[in-house]
Amino acid sequence: MAISLSALVEEANRYLNAARISDYCPNGLQVEGRPQVSKIVSGVTASLELIEAAVEAEADVLLVHHGYFWKGENPCVTGMKQRRLKTLLANDISLLAYHLPLDVHADVGNNVQLAARLGITVEGPLEPENPRTVGLIGSLAEAMSPQAFARHVGEVLGREPLLVEGQEMIRRVGWCTGGGQGYIDQAIAAGVDLYLTGEASEQTFHSARENGISFIAAGHHATERYGVQALGDYLARRFAVEHIFIDCPNPI
């Protein structure tokens, strides 16, 4: 069964409430391809590797978390950007990308999807008074040592995380997928035992160590694989089209 591209985009925008979220890039349809859609391929980042995999899979739409046209980037269509766009356009594949709307969504968002896989019960936002903060706070059913929780994260995500070990058992957790290391101060203020994100900065180590909490950097890509899969599954069910997720591993 095929549906119109416009109907797919309209529903994705509505479902994620994309128009109401201020972001660093355009959310929604970034590259327009063929007008009918019967197959969606999803992935984390619209790299050339993923685009070529979508071509091989005969996708009509490539759905990603990290798309193009970020604020402050060189707008010229040259080099890497030219090769990516040329491949999409030559194969008539649409690019549909959602950044912050896919981080914060209550059902298919990266943060809630990661929590479900790690067995964290969501309690609320990391910083309730700041609508731009995408992180969450939650709790584990049973307290774990920092080492045990790090092993659990590694088993779930399929890669060994970076652990800065604190002094307490882990029960209360704060997290923000991707490059959310800057929210560690809000997590400390919220009284968490451990803060988890994708990446680490030099000062993150000191913030965790000197404030007595544990910190885990589990990989930007690894922590953000699940929201786009859930969104693709939702759209596939909604419109009775095919959806497959293709993972192009990234160690960062």
Automatic annotation (TrEMBL):
Keywords: Metal-binding
One family name in Pfam for this protein: DUF34_NIF3
Keyword Membrane: no
Gene3D superfamilies assigned to the protein according to its UniProt record, in alphabetical order: NIF3 (NGG1p interacting factor 3)-like
Keyword Disulfide bond: no
Family: Belongs to the GTP cyclohydrolase I type 2/NIF3 family.
Protein name: Nif3-like dinuclear metal center hexameric protein
Organism encoding this protein: Ectopseudomonas mendocina
